[in-house]
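Both lines are given unchanged directly below:

***
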Amino acid sequence: MAVVAVWKCDRDGAMFDNKKDAEEHDKMLELAANITSLIERHVDGISEEVGEEIGLLLAKRREVLAKACKGKPEMLLEEDEAPAQAAEEPSADDTVTPLAANQ
């Protein structure tokens, strides 16, 4: 029987085949949670679900958001380059290791 090392994200239970990807995912989820908290404190009447969606969106696009804040606001209007990047870099979903029971 082979032993397979996996890293589990504390926040959502996602599992990764390397520590770097697991830590990156966990940091993104922490940022999303903090953004959600900020939004819920300052925007009256926003639902928890919508706040979480906004938080995840901004956390996932943090690089583009940072560039926009540094003087390139038009970058926020550009289409998501995720499909083009997906071919070059594995996404978090590609690095999640499924666990099979009773193997």
